[in-house]
C-alpha cells in the first residue's frame, strides 16, 4: 500500500509516544492514547515492544479495553489478557457487542467465560450460545444478532411510532427486516424508504425482497465476495429454515478483506498474520525454522541436480558462473505467471476452456521473451568467454527454462487447488524449485552435450 | 484468498458460458449473463479471450453497460469501448452516478465527452467539472456530490416532511449533513436518529459533529485507513473552506482496499493490476521483458561475484554444487523479514525507536537459525564430501548470509521509503540481489581462504 500522510502521522505518534515513555512522563502518554480510536490503540500496542506495550495498555481507558482487544492479533491479545485481572476482563467483555464478544470469547480463561455468561441476560446468552454453534469464519459467527424486525401487515406510520418508542437503533442499522410470525425472513425495508414513504402505506407494499439472505454457515470469504459484488451495506443471516438470526454489516466485511490481503501477503513468505511483531526470539526462531527447513530441502534438490554435472563444471568453470542466471530468470518469469493465475483463481476467472487459451498465450510470451533474452545473454557469454558452444547452451537453456516457467506458472495453481493446497501460499516455493532444477539441468546438460565431446 | 463456493460457482458459470458460446447458442448465454450483477459481468468479461468477450459484451443489457465499464480494469475497458458506437457510450455514461462517471470519463473519446457533458443539466455538469479539478486517487474524485443537506435551526418534523416531499434519497445515504447558509459543514444527523427522535426537537440538538470531514485532496489510501479505523459507513468531503462538496460511502472504500491488495500482490511480481489477462502476446511480451531485464541485471551482478572466485570453483567442484543453497536460504530468510517490515510500515507501526528493537530481535533470530542450519548443512556436506574445511566454510557462510538477510530485511524498506520507492514493489528484487551476492561471496570467499592454502 502506498505511503500516506495518515501512516506518517501514526508513525509520528508512535515516535512521540516512545519518547514520552523513555522519559517516564506517563501523563502525556495517557492523554495521547486516549485521543485514539480503539482500532488505532490496537495498532499502536502492536507496534510496541512487550514492556512498553504493558505500560501503555495500563493507561488505556478501561471503557475501551474490550474494543481494543477485538482489534489486535491473537498473539498480542494473549499478551494483553495476561496483564488483566479476571474482573477487568469481565468488565471489558461486558462492554462489547455480542458479535465482538463471540470473537473474543475463545481466548478468555474458562472461569472468566463463566463470569461473562452469568452477567448477561438470558436472551443475549442464548443468542451468543447460538452463534457459537457455528464454526469460526462463517457468517453465523460474524453476524450481530441485534436486529430490528417488523411485520409485513402494519403501516409505515405504525413502524415510525414503534421506532420512536424503541429509541436508539443498533449501530450501523440501514434497514429493518420483515419477518413472518415464525421469524422467517421475508425481505427488508430501508430507513431511507421509511423516511420518504407515505405513512399510510402498508409495509408489505414497500418490502424489498431483492436481497437474498445469507446462510449462517457460509464462509466469511464468500460473504465478502457477495458484499463487494452487490455493494451491500448489510445483509440478513438466516438458519437452514430461513429463520432470521442476525445481520452482517459492511464494517465487518472491510475487516475480513483486509485480513485476507494480509494473510495472502504474509502466507506467501511462510508467515502468520496473527504473529506478534515482537514475539520472543525463541518462539520466532522456531517458526521461521520450519519455513527455512522446507526451503532447505528444495535447495538441496536443486543442488543434487547440479551435482550430476560435476564433469562439465570441473572442465568449464564458466558453467558455474553462468548457471544461476538461467535459474533466476526462470524463477522471475514463472512467478509472474503464477501471480496472475492465483489472482484469476481468486476471482473465479479460471475455467478449463480459458486455462487453455491462457496457456497458449503464456507459452508464446515465454518463447518470445526467451528468444530475446537468449540472444542477449548468449552474446554477453560469447563476448566474455569466446566460446560459441557455451553461448549456445546458455541461450538455449534460457528459452527452455522460460517455457518451463510458463507451463508451471499455469499448471501448478490448477493442480495445487485440485489437491486442496492454497496456491497463494505454497505456489512460490514449488515453482522456484521447478525453475531452479530445470534451469540447472538444461544449462548443464546442454553444456555437457556441446562442450564435452 | 481461500477458495470459496462462490468462486467455484463463478468458475462454473464461466465454463457453462464458454460451452454455450462454443456451441453458438447465444440465447442461454444472454439469459445467464443478465442474471448477474454488473460487477459479476465485469469479472466474467475479464476472464474471456477477446473474441468471446466481444460476443458476450454485445449480449449485456444496455442498461448495465455503464456499470459494467466501471467494474473492469483499464485495459479491458478500452477493449470494450472500442466495440461501442458513440451513441451507445453516451447512453451508458448517462446511466451512471456522477462519481462513477468521473471515474470513466478520462477513458472516453473527446467527442463522446462533449456529448455526455451536453446531455447533463447545468448543476450536475458543474459538479462533475469541480470533481475533475481534483487529482485522481483523491477524496475529491471518489466522492459523490449527491448529498442531502438540512439546516440546523429546523425541527425534526420539518426534516421528515421535507424528506417525504423529496422522495427517494441518494443510494447508501445513512445520514443527512447539516450545513450553514454558506454550505459549510457543521455535522451530521443519522437516519436512525431522525426515526427515533421526538419530532418537535430541533435538529441542532441532535447534531453529531464527532465525525470530522475529509479534505477533498486527501489520498484515497488515507480515506480507506480512516474508514477502517473508525468503522464509518460514509464520510463528508469538504473543500479548503470547509464547504461541503459530497460524501464518500464505504462501498467505494471496499473497492479501494481490494485494489490496494491487488496492486501490492501483482506489483511485487512487476505486474500491473489494470492489465488484461488476455492482452495481445506482443504487448505482454514487451511488458514482461522490462521486469526480466531488470532481473537479468541483478543476476549478472551475482554472476560477476561468482566469477571472482574461479580459482576455488576450478579446484573444488563441490563449491559450485553447494553455493546456490547458501544464496537461496538467505533469500528466503530475508524475504520473511522484509514482508513483516513492509506490513508494519503500511500500518504505520515503524518508528526509529522500535526499528532498533526489531533489528535486535531479527538479528538474534537470524543468528539462532543460522547456527541451527549451519550445523545441519555442515554435517550433510561433511558426510558427502568428507572435507571438514568445506563443511566449515559452508556452515559459516550460512550464518553470515542469514544475518545479512536480517539486516537487509529491516534496513532496506526504511531506506527505500526514505528515497520515495515503494518497498512492497521493489524490495524483493533488491533484497534477493543482496542475499545472492552476499551468499556467493561469503561461501566462495571462505572456501578460497580455507581450501586454497
Automatic annotation (TrEMBL), chains A, B:
The protein's topology relative to the membrane is: Multi-pass membrane protein
In its keyword annotation, does this UniProt entry include rRNA processing? Answer: no
Q: Which residues cross the membrane?
A: 289-306, 312-342, 363-385, 391-416, 428-452
Which InterPro entries does its entry note?
A: CBS_dom, CBS_dom_sf, Mg_transptr_MgtE_intracell_dom, MgtE_N_sf, MgtE_transporter, SLC41_membr_dom, SLC41_membr_dom_sf
Instruction: Provide the CBS domain boundaries.
Output: 143-206, 207-266
Q: Which family does it belong to?
A: Belongs to the SLC41A transporter family.
NCBIfam families, per database record? mgtE
Q: What is its biological role?
A: Acts as a magnesium transporter.
* Annotated protein name in UniProt: Magnesium transporter MgtE
Specify the species.
Tahibacter amnicola
